Amino acid sequence: MREPDLQANASSWLTRRVLGWALFDVASSTYIALVPTFFGLYFAVVIARGDPSASAWWGAIAATSLLVAGILAPILGAYADRTARWFRVVVVATALCVLATVLLPAAAALDPLAAGAAFLVAQVGYTLATGVYDSLVVDVAAPGQRGRISGLGWALGLLGGIVAIVVALLMMQDVPKAEQIQGLGAVFGAAGLLFLALAVPGLAGLRGLRTSAAPPADRAGGIAASFRAVGTTLRRWRQHRPALQVLLSFFLVNDVLVTIQFFIAIVLSTRFGIGVDGLLWLALLYHLIAIPSTLLAGSLADRWGPKPTMLVMCGTLSAAIVLLAFGRADWVPVAAVALLGLVFASIQAVFRSLYASVVPPGQAAELFGFNAIAGRLSAALGPLIFGIAVTALGSSAWALCLLFVPLAAGAWLLAAADVPGHGPAGDRAQAATATRSRDRR
Length: 441
Description:
- With 441 residues, this protein is mostly helical.
- The chain has a single domain (19-433), classed as Up-down Bundle (Growth Hormone, Chain: A), CATH 1.20.1250.20.
- The protein has 18 helices and no strands.
- It is globular and about 50 Å long.
């Protein structure tokens, strides 16, 4: 759908098209709610059997998965743009994630290498599928509505996470506390099956979408042409300077978010002595707070502009890190998780709308693939450094303090980034510029 068509429908943003797009977020969130968050604890205690270097090994596994996904994402994104076969990419990547997740318990029973490989395949599949899915917001949402529609996708997706957590709580109901971490293996298998069950209608919702991919005459070359397209984009980086400015700031902020995601269960377990059932209840609290806050953040991004909205949320994220690093009271985990619920998904949703405002529609999947480079290659450093720091320092508290460095740098770069004007007026100007650019071509 072309940009003028989207503007014509600007008065009614909650359409069947939007809901069909958001449905896949519901399915994929069943994976992200349980597997990356809890597999690190399972790996350290069950697979590595309490080895002092387990955190470092887990950081290396997480970093490798992010590195591989970051390399592949822009190539597959360019392939999706050039061939209009984005749906095939999403289906194959989703299938890989589901299969590897279901096989996680069996892989864990073999040896740490097999378990790490299964997690790597699952995480890469999830990342590739959601990377192309994220790029579709350019076609689904009108320029002045991308904040709220991106927020809607995240908020509805969190419902999928709630379903997964409730299933996990029911599975843990009769398991003795001493055996709950071992019981996480069955939870991972259930998460894979749940992802499969919800992915079928989610993919059906995606299939009906039409995108502004390359015209038939430009769809030659397949993967080889996709490599060339990525190389061309890198050589002509000045033409995409606003998008790359935004990516550079998100490069650092996302490093903090991903590190917290991979290590939060370990931190809460080791620093506060919280068991698996307690961690699941905290995860449920996070999701219940994140749904309304993500919707609100999307609306605020459309009204105030995504950049100031994200800067406020970076400040809130800093407060959560302070509590996790230095808090000791019983209420600290609840307060820290509540603060994370306010901003964790919101930052990513608002960034998606901000990035969508600076990418050319015809290269959306490719440049959202470069988002995966910033979000995965950069984020690969966070878990790796954090895991090594925990092992070297013997405490997660001082390792948490290291997160203030990329967070402060990212916020500063975001404040200085050159982005389109904020709010509906700025979005209309950006849309007009994009229209004139297409007319010149």
